[in-house]
Amino acid sequence: MEQVFPTDPLLSQRMDHPPLPPGIAVLPGTDVEAAWERFYPFEALHHLHEICNPMRHTELAEVADVLAPADDLRVIDIACGHGDLLLFMAGPASIHGVGVDLSPWALLRARARACEAAPTGTLEWWLGDGKAVPQQAQWNIATCLGASWIWHGFAGTARALAGRLRPGGRLAIGDLRLRRNSDRKHLQDNRAPQSATPTGEEQTNALSELGLNVIAEIVAPDEAWEQYHETVIASAEAFARDHPDADYRHLATAWMEDFQRDRRYLTWSVWVAEKK
Questions:
Q1: I need a labelling partner for 36 at 20 to 30 A (CA). Which of 3, 11, 82, 136 fits?
Q2: What radius of gyration do the chain's Cα atoms show?
Q3: Span between the terminal Cα atoms of the chain, in Å
Q4: For residues 38 and 127, is the Cβ–Cβ distance under 8 A?
Q5: What residue ranges do the domains of the chain occupy?
Q6: CATH no. of 11-222+259-275
Q7: DSSP conformation letters of 68-83
């Protein structure tokens, strides 16, 4: 669940980072040094996560199963985080997968995990903004879990992924939505702007308006939310111990307080749909 944090103006003066491995491709227009800096706080709050969204292996495996990966299919995961979804799909099938993320920290971990797991097929890692991925219908599976901000919301994300899918291809979008019978007026603008938080019906309508067949919704249970929150706090605590000049525990606490406050009105789920 990617979140953009404010940039620390002193960070570039004190931050040290590893080199970007040659195996990570850089998309056009990407400021690599700025990306290291911008996503340093995200690294602090997520370096202990295996899955950077409020999901457990159970839900992620279900998403991968519904997407139906098969040998030789072309798969792209935009905002891939630590590569968890691609690795799930590359286990049973020899896919040609690409993970895209704007955080070089996340891609370092994704690449290392892929080398250790030795999946079948091929996996590539691209550093850059998801909007820089060519708008061509060349993918059999296209996913974006927890980063709808790239295209300004769920509907924009659905349109972007559908435009990159081949006929018969499947997409998956993970995003917040209002719980059933919840009212937008209860949401706090600093965490979930009322205008940007759709209902489940509005999400399915956005998919249907693009001519997509909705296949499934996989909803994150409360236990997955709790696990995600606890790992954010633990990550920040561990990072502050190891990096005394980079204490982001206040960000972790504020972010989690926002989620805990709004969670009674919000849930997080993954929609899977197919292009006709």
A1: 136
A2: 18
A3: 28
A4: no
A5: 11-222+259-275
A6: 3.40.50.150
A7: ---TT-EEEEET-TTS
Cβ proximity of 162 and 212 under 8 Å: yes
d(C-alpha 88, C-alpha 71), whole Å: 14
Phi/psi at 162 (5° precision): -60, -35
Is it the case that residue 79 has pLDDT exceeding 80? yes
The band of 189, judged by pLDDT with boundaries at 50, 70 and 90, is low
Q: In what order do the strands lie in the sheet with 165-178?
A: 24-26, 122-127, 96-101, 74-78, 139-145, 165-178, 266-275, 212-219
Contact present, 142 and 69 (Cβ < 8 Å): no
CA distances from 181 to 32, 186, 207, 240, 264 (A): 44, 12, 21, 40, 11
Supply the DSSP string of 205-221, one letter for each residue: HHHHHTTEEEEEEEEPP
- Is the per-residue pLDDT at 188 higher than 90? no
